[in-house]
Hints:
homodimer, alpha+beta, Porin, 14-stranded antiparallel sheet, two-stranded antiparallel ribbon, 17 strands, 16% helix, globular, Sec_Metab_Biosynth-Assoc (chains A, B)
Amino acid sequence: MTSEYDEATTFELTGNRATARLSSDWGIGNAVNGGIIMSLLAQVTSSVSRSAGGHGDVLGLSAVFLSPGADGAAEVSTDVLRNGRSMTTAQTLLSQEDERVRAFVTLGDIDRYAEPITLNPQPPAMPEPDACVRSSDAPPDALSQSGLLSRVDIRLDPACVGWAVGQPSGNGELRGWIRFADGREPDLHSLLLFLDAFPPVTFDLGAKGWVPTVQFSGYLHARPAPGWLQVRTRTTTVAGGLHEEDAQIWDSTGRLVAQSRQLASARF
Amino acid sequence: MTSEYDEATTFELTGNRATARLSSDWGIGNAVNGGIIMSLLAQVTSSVSRSAGGHGDVLGLSAVFLSPGADGAAEVSTDVLRNGRSMTTAQTLLSQEDERVRAFVTLGDIDRYAEPITLNPQPPAMPEPDACVRSSDAPPDALSQSGLLSRVDIRLDPACVGWAVGQPSGNGELRGWIRFADGREPDLHSLLLFLDAFPPVTFDLGAKGWVPTVQFSGYLHARPAPGWLQVRTRTTTVAGGLHEEDAQIWDSTGRLVAQSRQLASARF
């Protein structure tokens, strides 16, 4: 049986162009989550790069979001910009009538870059998943506005969910666990989804509403081991209605497998 | 008299294409420093955006470095991808025969996004510039290999220069001050240069040699006040000969005015 994630990132490739479908099953409000779009872009880019004799594992992806992805057909096209011995660089666009997302993608052989580990930050302390607050316990109106919250199983450290009852901690940090709700194990390119699946970290500062990403850069460090992923999102910089959010993901062995930074709005 | 920086980022614009010159005066080894190239790209993008009725201040810039910039003529071209009410998104390329750097640029009115400040990290403690180690005191062979080190005045906290005498601290952090050597005051787009002007942070872990940036994302938060800038670069993630370097810049009022993350090699 195909997992929900694999179904959502299915595409048909002809040359360097792919057709796919974005689904509101992965929506946040009126937009399709940027993370599932980036996972799709990563997979198309990987296929095109391999076909061109290039590398297939995404090491880095920088995206600009021009307008929100909508439920329906989408076209993805990839241009390989440089095919080097150790890395391939590509540019990938997603269009739905007009252009929605554009990304630079650096690819390599992830297993070559995963070892040896010289420096690796430890995951923060947090209660076990069963002692955390479940995304499925979110208020019914939040769940009905977000298909994403039914596709991923998020467990937030109770110490950073005060915002859900009007008492944000003011620390600008969320910690918790994440996995696919249907039991699919995480793989390398799904980490891009998980980097952008938590509620906005500005909720912890009292901000309201999900807000669109302006610019995003994610880096993937290793294939994740099976099991729960640990996530920490933080912001240190909020001004003029803009903020930066940093996300880190550790796999079940405690290894940092991905991190990202995004520039996004913040509504107070 | 024109400052060295203004001379190095001079360009002649015709429509959405500009001609410029990269100079080994701003070199690191055989390459022209990526920071001066990004400052040039920011200025060209700003001019093209304004001509198209768009915004003029860079808020974010994500670049991929396809091959090193070389001394000589360069062509820069900008396409405005989206011109919105509050932000403009553009893509800018720098070519010298072949393509060298490609960047996504998000522009807005920086003064609108600079206030009010909701969250702003404080600069780290460090000795005053005169109590720090000067870049001009670097060994003669290092200075002769790097024009950049004569154009910017870097003062490193003595606590993080042990690597210069074979005793890296192992913390993965550099702290210090920076300004233009000829006394020019910093402005918004020059922050992109300053984000990429410090020695590689991996020196503090015992790595050798300046290494090319693969992918870079910088965010600009406010126009810097005149005077010294404080810089901290850190890495938490080094594996398989790749690392991520985060840089932060505070102006003389103690405000965080810019930050960046880059993916680069690390040679041990």
